[in-house]
């Protein structure tokens, strides 16, 4: 299946008919084609270098001792036995941190090593460097820590009245949003309570890194960072060094749907390397990975929707409580997204929303794809299903009567100035043919919801069709200074791109090559590896690198293009706008001039450096009002699910997707990103939940934490990609991966509601919640 334009600003899914000859593929060159990633062969062959593969002469191995308790006072730490074990070079604790003891992505409230108390299960206490990995682990286990166990605060609702868990208090942020008239009521009102579980990013490769001391007293850290300059600054502050004494070199990133590397891995590494004067390597176990990095915020949401008798929304009331875990991290940003998008892509004239993010003794929460937006999407779409049922309307009809469009207002008071083709997206998924029922295709093998060997009976299976509309913001928000810098060099027939934008699987490296090919007509383009000697490009999240870093590459390439064309234009007495570059050839509008790029360069090297900085945003005020976002992206998904109403097992048959993408820059890459996003959303809907008991993580491994595999993935049909370009975005493109993650869980829940008649207010959906009411009544 491939994406083709229908001539009306959209891309639709098409499949060549049987017997129709397929035309030969055009050369892969420039924007709009499916240029394959340069690193694809190495990754497929297993030769691509990741942090866990690194080696250095005289290497030592690190191990970290982590707290077995979610909350406890530390009475003493005795490292003597560990330090005396064979092969052990050094043991470090909080006493050995020479600089700032606190660090954190958003708020520096998290210690490198716990000092007086531990605040979550898995918090680092000490670290060891030894000559063998087993020696390091044994020494870490030999560190004697005396704890006074405290009662953990694990219910975020109790955090308001509990004693302070942190010197900064338990409340991280409260956003009261007031829009319109708070006293307005509708003719019809529906209420709902929703709970969203703790999803883990579960990267393919666990955290790993290598720290190498430098002769000048500094250190180099090799790791799969997604925000190397922030990590460098955190490390320098912790080590008591200047930022230029710490260098972060980004290795291959084995998947990233969140902040890829927890500083709790990098900071002990660098500290051990500085103390020993030797290279030190750490490769975390899967258990350590689960305990250390940030997860999606578990969220409790209470909603009340008011509407007129015809289904027109009048007011939304909501209370949103996000569990940040032990430390603030990026919880303030996640809460801002949740509150701002609490009404969804619908026109709501009045809104009263309160959002809180609080500290608990649960595992840390932080940035994860679609943070804040996913949680509220599951809730407001559940409310739209309830409202449709109350009014006797079809779920898609109630949504169409209220969808947002360009020019409408968010409940933050911000005008939606970007393309917002929400109605078009919903029409596309609604009108797509539904998959056949088993009785319509008796020759096909029917998979029961329990799998190929499902224990249920076909007579107990009900099919449900559900809908969901989702939205996310692009780039940072609330005054974040978004900027990226890129350098483009060209010599002969080869171009080089230098930009500190980390390739996390989003396809930035491929996009950078395409931009230079398109602008300069050079086929061979190399993208340099990333380190902090380069100017910063910011974090790899919110589609930043497609927009900001891609924009910087484009501007630099255009500056080189001007340098290349100006001498020719001057020689022939014309402006550079009258010259064009295609397939490595420079031609004039009248055909008088025709030469190659290599001939025009004449052995010279041309280069330029440029920045891209989108227009500024502003923080939300005391009423939750403000122009906080640069742009928005939208998605519609129709889910078809089979549910065994006796066993509660669920099989998602098909996910039909229509998405607002601005412009398709790489069709195959875009389709892959959407399919991956839908699958990750499916995991949040049906299986992914990092379970805890009184703050203790249960089964922190990939047997206890279920992830969707190829056997769980449904048919994903991308029926429409709306190419309505955002005029303020470079190339007019919108980031693509976050919004299907946000929308998919709500669509699955909607389909299960349709099949069972149950309210489905918890994600992931538990089997007992998917048992139809009539079955429960019969068994009562």
Automatic annotation (TrEMBL):
It comes from the Bacteria. Residues 1-37 are annotated as: Disordered. Pfam families: Ald_Xan_dh_C (PF01315), MoCoBD_1 (PF02738), MoCoBD_2 (PF20256). Residues 45-151 form the Aldehyde oxidase/xanthine dehydrogenase a/b hammerhead domain. Residues 7-20 have a biased composition (Low complexity). This is Xanthine dehydrogenase family protein molybdopterin-binding subunit. It comes from Streptomyces mooreae.
